[in-house]
Design brief:
The structure holds 3 protein chains of 3 kinds.
Chain A (H helix, E strand, L loop, with lengths): L15 H4 L2 H17 L3 H18 L3 H6 L5 H14 L4 E5 L2 E4 H27 L2 H12 L9 H31 L9 H6 L2 H24 L18 H22 L1
Antiparallel strand pairs in A: 1-2
Helix pairs in contact in A: 2-6, 2-11, 3-6, 3-11, 5-6, 7-8, 8-10
Chain B lengths: L2 E10 L7 E11 L4 E5 L6 H8 L7 E6 L2 E2 L7 H7 E4 L12 H10 L5 H14 L4 H4 L9 H13 L5 E5 L7 H18 L2 E6 L2 H7 L2 E6 L2 E6 L1 H6 L1 H6 L6 H11 L11 H17 L1
Parallel strand pairs in B: 3-8, 3-9, 6-7, 7-8
Antiparallel strand pairs in B: 1-2, 1-4, 4-5, 9-10
Chain C lengths: L2 E10 L10 E9 L3 E5 L6 H8 L7 E6 L2 E2 L6 H7 E4 L12 H11 L4 H14 L15 H13 L5 E5 L7 H16 L4 E6 L10 E6 L2 E6 L1 H5 L2 H6 L6 H11 L11 H10 L2
Parallel strand pairs in C: 3-8, 3-9, 6-7, 7-8
Antiparallel strand pairs in C: 1-2, 1-4, 4-5, 9-10
The chains are: A mainly alpha, B alpha/beta, C alpha/beta.
Chain lengths: 265, 287, 277
């Protein structure tokens, strides 16, 4: 049951986007997010939507997959939409019972909903086309310049890799511990919030202890393989930017400029 | 009849690309008080099978009836099944969580509506059964104990629930020969003295042979052999073909026959081998 | 044969206020190219000895040198660990990366090697442990035996002269155990790597060049498999197993049967009994 959660959700299609350097993809995603928050006109949204649509087509990932990430958020999106539609003051264009729909409210609602939807789809594009290893490598590289001011770039990347490596293992272990405790009469399902929280103790204590034990063992194994931090460490797969990366980033740059322009005009 | 399994089939992840048939039409009957050895490779289905016996898993098809209670019946409460069937998983020491040994062992009985005195009595009894010193250990943290002691605390935790059927999944995993012998001896004594039904899951033929009344051999989700140890070890070709062995002396016997030294048909331990060989030498010298 | 690991007057205590010594004065050499098995029940000190051999632990008294480097010297620690690699008991808790080939690259990456060299070593290691077709898989999808082979590959990729195996099969099922043992033997015979194999399973010591039996922090018995296995009474008193045929030989000899006491395999027993015909 717990094993069905897929982390990362990498969907290989061998497309151009999959082959881009993770750093350029991080830059594109970041730009998208910045863009989404600075725009305030339909035209701008149109630009972003076409950009994302184009990227989706190039990535060869089925649209259904992209929108999968939206399902759990449907509730929030609808609520946001409704709240903005009914609660914004302005020129009333429609009335439903005691609630007024204003012109401003309607456009706000659409913007907010679109923002959420595009945010999810945009970041999905990143995780669907980039493996966890590539992502952590990309993040490590981007954080590297900040080492001078004390940001432990390598350590953070190592932590992320190890976490990703152990998530499925820990999920399996959680399953085992749950079954062992259920066999002793533990009940994780019934009761109110308080009693259910209490019933998690027989699950969480062994899990934590096990996690610490694993950490101990792993540290020893890493040291036995001469791990001593990021100094002088090389990588088997080095990140290399290509022409396609430059072009993608350039296109993104142009899009950003256009978006900023729509804001000012 | 203690346990009746009829036409049990279990399919994981049905209708997905990961669909697996872990159990295929299993039919087994286990009588009250029997000591059963369940043997098979990883992937043979033995873990899946035992999880049906206490209702952790439900059949995709077929029935599992424990002391008259059908687990597939909607009115059967799993709580009632789990009061009768104690299941000790592999590496049970990884499930310990309480502050003291007493509290951990008392966790299970605590869920059974018993008085404090009764719970204390049960903790005492179950610790004795696994050879743990009550006075010395009850107030210590289970995490301070050695690996072998922790395992025995975990087993005591199940024994304290006084199950009528005790299932142990590879209780000797990770133990050295001495630790293994201790645990198996304790389980064997428990079976003899308390007359409970015991199912021991293992990959080691030699371990199982010494203690069980009957062996059930599983391979690729099916039961392929069942019988008393002597009968099972006669099938050494079949056992080898599915990746399980026979005790070394049984193999020795087979090779001696090929070399025209004929001892009695079934030899399953060193003592028997010794007696048979000595007999053969004496009869040769007398001839 | 030159010694690759030299242990001299080794004494070890886990904590300075411990009364009990974990290792009580051991002097032993491990020779280059040897396949040594260290046997003992849990608590005999064998795992402690393993960790002392690659500087994960440092002697309380006495010295251990690996390829001439003393484990007490901090600057030598990394060279020592590259020379004497180690594979541990828990297959899961040695794998760091999210896919197999990345994990094997971990060691060479730590050594600061060139990417091309790392790739070559990873390919070679994968071939030796026969895990080529699994190079892109995630570790949690592998069986115990496969995970251990990945761990072994990760160590081989650092090109050690010697590998210490600390109970590598204790948590595996019989087929996993078989695979790992096969790989270990292959490393010794084909790749000429010195092996120190720590275990409590006697049957894993049958092919060793030398067996060292430990009890309470001391070496209590040492010799070739034939020499050690035939000490049936002693081994049993130490809580260790002997192969059934060896025990049988011992019992038959007690009853006056004329067969040698160092019978290790079924075939040998058959042969000697046939000679009595």
């Amino acid at each position: 049951m717990l094993k069905d959660i897929t982390i990362g959700q990498y969907y290989p299609t061998g497309s151009v986007i999959h082959k881009l350097d993770p750093r350029s993809k991080l830059f594109i995603t970041f730009s998208l997010i910045v863009g989404l928050f600075i725009i305030d006109k339909f035209l701008a949204y149109g630009i972003i939507i076409s950009f994302i649509l184009m990227a989706t087509i190039v990535s060869k990932i089925p649209i259904g997959y992209m929108t999968k990430g939206l399902r759990p958020l449907m509730f929030i999106i609808i609520i946001t939409f409704l709240i903005n539609m009914f609660m914004t003051t302005g020129e009333v264009i429609y009335t439903v019972g005691p609630l007024n729909v204003t012109r401003e409210g309607l456009s706000q609602a659409i913007f907010m909903a679109l923002r959420l939807i595009l945010l999810v789809i945009g970041t999905s594009l990143l995780t669907l086309t980039t493996t966890p290893i590539q992502l952590t490598d990309g993040i490590e590289y981007m954080l590297n310049p900040f080492r001078r001011i004390g940001v432990p770039a390598h350590e953070l990347a190592m932590m992320m890799t190890i976490a990703l490596r152990f998530i499925p293992t820990l999920l399996e272990e959680t399953d085992k511990i749950m079954k062992a405790q259920i066999a002793r009469g533990a009940d994780f399902e019934s009761g109110n919030i308080l009693s259910r929280a209490k019933s998690l103790v027989p699950l969480l204590v062994p899990l934590f202890i096990s996690a610490f034990r694993r950490a101990d063992d792993l540290a020893m194994a890493m040291e036995a393989r001469c791990y001593r931090g990021g100094e002088n460490r090389t990588r088997m797969k080095e990140l290399k930017m290509t022409g396609k990366d430059s072009i993608s980033m350039a296109i993104t740059g142009i899009m950003l400029i256009l978006l900023i322009y729509t804001r000012i005009m | 009849m203690s346990i009746k399994i009829e036409g049990l089939t279990h399919i994981y992840n049905s209708k997905s690309p990961f669909e697996t048939k872990a159990l295929d039409n299993i039919n087994i009957e286990i009588s009250d008080g029997e000591f059963i050895g369940l043997i098979g490779h990883t992937g043979s289905g033995k873990s899946t099978l035992i999880q049906h016996l206490n209702g952790l898993l439900k059949p995709t098809e077929g029935k599992v009836i424990i002391n008259g209670l059908d687990i597939t019946d909607k009115s059967t409460k799993m709580r009632d099944i789990r009061k009768k069937v104690g299941l000790v998983f592999q590496y049970p020491e990884y499930q310990l969580f309480e502050e003291t040994v007493f509290k951990d062992i008392a966790f299970g009985p605590g869920k059974l509506d018993l008085s404090e005195e009764e719970i204390e009595l049960r903790v005492k009894e179950s610790m004795e059964l696994v050879n743990l010193n009550y006075d010395e250990l009850i107030n210590r943290s289970p995490f301070e104990l050695s690996g072998g002691q922790k395992r025995r605390v975990a087993i005591a935790g199940i024994l304290a629930m006084k199950p009528e059927i005790l299932i142990l999944d590879e209780p000797t995993a990770g133990l050295d020969p001495r630790g293994r012998d201790e645990i198996l001896d304790q389980i064997s004594n428990l079976h003899k003295n308390n007359k409970i039904t015991v199912i021991l899951v293992s990959h080691s033929m030699e371990d199982i042979a010494r203690y069980v009344d009957r062996i059930i051999v599983m391979h690729q989700s099916k039961v392929v052999l069942t019988g008393i140890p002597r009968e099972i070890f006669r099938e050494h070709e079949m056992l080898e073909s599915i990746g399980l062995g026979v005790p070394q002396v049984t193999l020795l016997n087979k090779k001696l026959r090929e070399a025209e030294i004929c001892l009695k048909e079934d030899i399953i331990n060193v003592e028997e081998a010794k007696l048979e060989i000595l007999n053969w030498i004496r009869s040769k010298n007398n001839a | 044969m030159s010694a690759i690991i030299e242990i001299k007057d080794l004494v070890y205590k886990y904590r300075s206020d411990d009364e009990e010594l974990a290792i009580k004065k051991i002097t032993k050499d491990i020779n280059s190219g040897e396949f040594v098995v260290v046997i003992g029940h849990n608590g005999s000190g064998k795992s402690t000895l393993a960790k002392l051999m690659n500087a994960l632990l440092v002697p309380t008294e006495g010295d251990i040198t690996v390829d001439g480097m003393n484990t007490k010297e901090e600057e030598s620690v990394w060279a020592i660990r590259q020379t004497a690699g180690m594979v541990f008991q828990n297959p899961d808790n040695q794998i760091v990366a999210t896919i197999v080939e990345e994990d094997i690259a971990f060691g060479p990456e730590n050594l600061g090697l060139e990417p091309k060299v790392i790739l070559d070593r990873v390919n070679e290691a994968l071939t030796i442990v026969d895990m080529d077709h699994h190079r892109h898989r995630a570790p949690h999808l592998l069986s115990g035996g496969q995970k251990q082979r990945v761990a072994i590959a990760g160590v081989i990729a650092m090109k050690p002269r010697c590998i210490i195996f600390d109970e590598p099969t204790a948590m595996l099922d019989p087929s996993g155990r078989k695979d790992v043992l096969h790989t270990i033997k292959k490393l010794n015979k084909e790749e000429n790597i010195t092996i120190v194999h720590i275990t409590h399973f006697m049957e894993e010591a049958v092919d060793a060049d030398r067996i060292i039996v430990m009890e309470e922090g001391k070496v209590i018995l040492e010799g070739t498999p034939r020499e050690v296995f035939s000490e049936v009474e002693l081994l049993k008193s130490l809580g260790l197993d002997v192969p059934q045929v060896t025990e049988l030989a011992h019992e038959l000899i007690k009853e006056g049967v004329n067969i040698p006491k160092d019978i290790l395999t079924v075939d040998e027993m058959v042969m000697y009994l046939c000679q009595l015909k």
